[in-house]
Design a protein that fits this description.
Number of strands: 38
Number of domains: 1
Structural class: mainly beta
Strand content: over 45%
CATH architecture: Beta Barrel
């Protein structure tokens, strides 16, 4: 309540009722947020932004697990939410706009914090679920407490046959947390993991192809796949209070790897990538007699990452494509890096109702790149490609460093104990990712790009009492050094965009039984520069950024009785432009979802969910390939009506 910034939180009861198969189903309850659903568990994220794709799409959003970043800065994954056990979480928090001083690179447009159950807070629960497209899921959550500590754990097993041809997946997610009360303080150790084995479905093509009931469930890329795994280990130490400073120490280790067929590229090369990283985080907080509070902190991180790309079969198409995208290895490199950060945050009561909240972060990030192949844009055996060289260029060994400072200042005004107003000015930044620096194209020998920055102004009001919780926010954000791929296939960072909008969330307890909720946003995302971009795109100042719906929203009405809960949800996705020139649009859609839960005994309950109740024909994602003549409309067709039933036992 007393934070000079927006913050949305979805608690465990709401998460259990949704029982999401994909993070998209959770995101509709957060204003200004759209986690775009692609094939299987793949996703692209938008928080106060368009759906970011291509160069610059990675690293714009910070994903945390219990307050610790799930990936190192510079080694992002646009699909990184499938690495985190959201299906086992006790809550999900979303901060829209740049992150605060506690975190640095990647918190550019928003932060998602997945909170796993706290040891000692829950009991034992197990469920079995089945549904459309041969879906099957089992979940177990276990908790045990003793006089000196507690342990919680959870595991999820999923199988989905896929609603499109050869598009199923299997996944495993698990976590375990142990908390011990020791003589010197409290120690918590946790571990989590994920494994995904997915058959991937590509775009279907043709204007409004998602409405063609005869072909919308086909898969033009049955050979495509994605295999990914991740593991994280963390320890948090909170010394017993013994002085004026309250301290916390965090240490963590992370590892992930992924292998997938790039079916969307000519020649369909195989990409293999991975990272191993570890770090330390320290913070110390002190309160003063006049109500002032000071927090100081520092963090450090080491990382080793790698990327390999290999094409097994000749490309098809024009003579240019065949000549410039050769069979063999395209990239093979390692990157070693480290990050050092420090921050300070200050809360100062100004008068009886006013409070100043400010902070600043400094961060230094350095990469050392080692090329394991011949440098240049030749084939892997050193022979040249036709048409002026191969599409892929490998820079020689090098090092790069980036230094960023991000301040923030905000004010909070207490109208009464239940209502506050707030305003803040925040800078966010995103250092260039390793792939943007070292995965070069054709004659590009050096990626001369800067860190992206966003300056954000936000003002809002928040009210909470027993029957209503309301938050309304307006914002204006300007992004500089936006990284995109220009017409020469170079990664450049001279883009500018502007993002503005209003967001509203309302939760109402209408009476003892009925409740209602609304989450909605209106935004405008605009280009603020002129350029010729890749795929024949022309960017003009004032044009809307593509894949950026102006209106996003959801409304829910529900009933909760002694043994029965029912909820009807309506979601709306506005139409949006498919290209930077604003020549083509997707018309938008709205969906209805129904959720029912019956507690038929003290231990047992049954649930049913019907997604897309009216069987709407829509697209989860729409796109336009402008490089072809005529341009090609491409879609991920939306899910049809789906029914899921589950049986649960708890104690």
């Amino acid at each position: 309540m007393n934070v000079a910034a927006n913050l949305s939180r979805i608690d465990g009861d709401a998460l259990d009722l949704v029982s999401a198969l994909h993070p998209y189903e959770i995101s509709v309850q957060v204003p200004g947020t759209w986690i775009n659903r692609n094939s299987g568990q793949e996703q692209l994220t938008a928080i106060r932004s368009p759906v970011l794709t291509g160069a610059g799409s990675c690293g714009a959003f910070l994903v945390l697990e219990d307050g610790i970043p799930t990936r190192p800065a510079g080694f992002c994954n646009v699909n990184q939410l499938f690495e985190v056990p959201t299906e086992l979480a006790s809550a999900v928090e979303v901060l829209r706009g740049p992150t605060n001083a506690y975190f640095g690179s990647n918190g550019l447009h928003g932060t998602i914090n997945i909170l796993l159950p706290t040891p000692g807070d829950t009991g034992f629960a197990a469920s079995l679920e089945t549904g459309s497209h041969s879906f099957a899921r089992s979940r177990i959550r276990w908790d045990d407490a003793t006089a000196t500590g507690a342990t919680s754990a959870g595991i999820l097993l999923d199988h989905d046959g896929g609603y499109r041809d050869e598009s199923g997946y299997e996944q495993v997610k698990a976590f375990v947390k142990n908390r011990r009360n020791l003589a010197g303080g409290v120690l918590q150790v946790s571990a989590s993991l994920s494994e995904l084995d997915q058959e991937t479905a590509g775009y279907i093509t043709g204007f409004q192809a998602y409405k063609n009931t005869a072909t919308r469930f086909g898969n033009p890329n049955p050979e495509a796949f994605r295999e990914a795994g991740s593991r994280r280990l963390a320890a948090v130490w909170q010394p017993a209070a013994g002085g004026s400073w309250q301290q916390e120490y965090r240490a963590y280790l992370r590892n992930s790897e992924m292998e997938f067929l790039q079916h969307f590229l000519p020649g369909q090369p195989l990409e293999e990538n991975g990272q191993t990283s570890g770090g330390l985080m320290f913070s110390s907080k002190r309160g003063f007699a006049d109500g002032m509070q000071l927090t100081l902190g520092a963090d450090a991180e080491l990382v080793h990452g790698y990327l390999r790309e290999t094409q097994a079969e000749p490309a098809t198409g024009s003579a240019f494509l065949i000549a410039t995208r050769p069979v063999g290895k395209h990239y093979d490199y390692d990157v070693f890096g480290y990050q050092l950060g420090a921050f300070a945050a200050l809360r100062v009561p100004l008068k009886q109702r006013w409070e100043l909240q400010s902070g600043a972060r400094m961060e230094y990030l350095r990469y050392r790149y080692d090329n394991n192949m011949l440098s240049g844009n030749t084939r892997d055996d050193g022979t040249p490609c036709g048409f002026g060289g191969c599409q892929y260029n490998r820079p020689a060994d090098r090092s790069d460093a980036f230094f960023n400072i991000a301040p923030n200042v905000g004010v909070l005004y207490r109208f009464d104990p239940k209502t506050i107003g707030f305003a803040n000015l925040t800078r966010g930044f995103r250092a260039p990712q390793a792939t943007e620096l070292y995965r070069l194209q054709r004659s590009q020998t050096v990626a001369e790009i800067d860190s992206e920055t966003v300056d954000a102004l936000e003002a809002g009001i928040r009210h909470q009492d027993g029957n209503i919780r309301l938050e309304a926010v307006a914002y204006l954000m300007r992004k500089r050094h936006f990284i995109f791929r220009d017409a020469a296939d170079f990664n450049v960072s001279n883009g500018k965009t502007e993002h503005s909008g209003v967001e509203v969330s309302i939760d109402l307890q209408l009476n003892d039984r009925f409740y209602a909720a609304l989450a909605g946003s209106f935004s405008r995302q605009e280009y603020r520069f002129d350029s010729a971009a890749d795929q024949g795109e022309t960017i003009v100042t004032g044009n809307a950024v593509d894949t950026a719906p102006e209106l996003l929203g959801s409304a829910r009405i529900g009933y909760t009785g002694n043994r029965f809960t029912g909820e009807l949800e309506w979601t709306h996705t506005d139409g949006y432009f498919l290209d930077a020139a604003n020549t083509a649009r997707y018309e938008g859609h709205h969906l209805l979802n129904l959720r029912l839960n019956w507690q038929f005994s003290k231990r047992w309950s049954a649930a049913m969910r019907i997604n897309n109740l009216t069987d709407e024909l829509y697209a989860d994602r729409a796109d336009l390939l402008s490089v072809t003549a005529p341009p090609v409309y491409r879609y991920f067709p939306g899910h049809p009506r789906e029914v899921y039933v589950s049986l649960s036992w708890q104690r």
